[in-house]
Amino acid sequence: MNIREVVTEADLHDVFPVLQQLRTKISREEASSLFQKMKEENYKLLSLQNEDDEVVCLAGVAICTNFYNEKHVFVYDLVTAEAHRSKGYGKVLLSYVEKWGREKGCSSIVLTSAFPRVDAHRFYEREGYDKVSYSFYKEL
């Protein structure tokens, strides 16, 4: 297994089919445009390749600081390719993100997950994550 940072447009093109399994409404063009802006805001997209060099899992993360979580890793995106779920890839990549966050001086890792994603909630709870709040959203 190999973990790499997605940096270039070509890298993003290679991982897009997996990303689209989580972000189903986004086009390649939108993803490309947003990715450039997100990188400017310290977003990192990490890719896990299996032994056959297939992209099997992605994590989109950023280090943030605020009054309630102090310095922390925020996980914006975490997805394992549907054909490769329940093989431990998500656990491997999330563990890598946790280690990376510790090395960067973060005190916690934070994420949100939509209500219908019950399997994802079970996964996070198995990995030691607690449900601590609701996330609210309002379109502007």
TrEMBL record:
Keywords: Acyltransferase, Transferase. CDD domains: NAT_SF (cd04301). Residues 1-140 form the N-acetyltransferase domain. This is Acetyltransferase (GNAT) family protein. Transmembrane segments: none annotated. It comes from the Bacteria. GO terms for molecular function: acyltransferase activity, transferring groups other than amino-acyl groups. InterPro entries: Acyl_CoA_acyltransferase, GNAT_dom, YpeA/RimI_acetyltransf. The keyword Transferase applies.
